[in-house]
């Protein structure tokens, strides 16, 4: 979340410049913190999280979940089995589907079914970074 921290530093700088008017404190705090965030982006290895598709099928789910698939980002180093166990603990009466294909009407008309499998994200490079020598850590 270092990128988000940099954004917050910029917002904080605006507050110090336009409302608090303490440039000394701003220069000390902002310079050391913001520089550290940029350094972290470039030097610290960040684990790539796994992503999971989760489908909620059956008559027992509320309308906002029923027959819908959501993509969830796992925590650092979280395995599918751990994610799935946590998910199943939230819906103890659900039956786990062990397939990645779209379920048929028999599954959709059953009480509770959960489908969970790993998916691979598709990297979309922002237009402002295309055709430029940008390090992978920034992308």
Strand content: 15-25%
Order of helices and strands: HHEEHEHE
Q: Which value, in Å, is the CA radius of gyration?
A: 22 Å
In angstroms, what separates the terminal alpha carbons?
A: 14 Å
Count of DSSP strands: 4
- Helix-and-strand structural type: alpha+beta
Q: Could you name the ranges where pLDDT drops below 50 across 5 or more consecutive residues?
A: none
Helix fraction by DSSP (H/I, runs of at least 4): 25-40%
Number of domains: 2
Shape label: elongated
Query: Count the helices. How many?
Result: 4
Main sheet specs = 4 strands, mixed
Mean pLDDT: 86
Widest β-sheet, arrangement of strands: 2-1-4-3
Domain DOCKER: 1-139
Protein name: DOCKER domain-containing protein
Family: Belongs to the DOCK family.
InterPro entries: DOCK (IPR026791), DOCK_C_lobe_A (IPR043161), DOCKER_dom (IPR027357)
Walk me through this protein's architecture.
Residues 1-139 form the DOCKER domain. InterPro entries: DOCK (IPR026791), DOCK_C_lobe_A (IPR043161), DOCKER_dom (IPR027357). Belongs to the DOCK family. The chain is α+β, with helices and mostly antiparallel strands and 139 residues long. It has helices at 2-20, 23-43, 80-90, 105-108, and strands at residues 51-57, 68-73, 95-97, 113-119. The protein has 2 domains: 2-43; 51-119, no CATH class. The protein contains 4 helices and 4 strands, in the order ααββαβαβ. The protein has a 4-stranded mixed sheet with strand order 2-1-4-3, with helices on one face. Helix 4 (105-108) links the parallel strand 3 and strand 4. Helix 1 (2-20) packs antiparallel against helix 2 (23-43). The two termini are 14 Å apart.
């Amino acid at each position: 979340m270092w990128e988000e921290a940099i954004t917050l530093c910029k917002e904080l700088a605006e507050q110090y410049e336009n409302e608090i008017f303490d440039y000394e404190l701003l220069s000390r705090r902002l310079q050391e913190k913001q520089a550290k965030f940029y350094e972290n982006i470039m030097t610290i290895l960040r684990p790539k999280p796994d992503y999971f598709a989760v489908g909620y099928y059956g008559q027992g789910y509320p309308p906002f979940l029923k027959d819908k698939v959501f993509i969830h980002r796992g925590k650092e180093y979280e395995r599918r089995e751990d994610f799935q166990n946590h998910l199943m603990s939230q819906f103890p009466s659900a039956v786990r589907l062990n397939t990645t294909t779209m379920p048929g009407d028999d599954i959709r008309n059953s009480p509770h079914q959960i489908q969970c499998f790993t998916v691979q994200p598709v990297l979309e490079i922002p237009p402002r970074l295309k055709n430029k020598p940008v390090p992978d850590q920034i992308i």
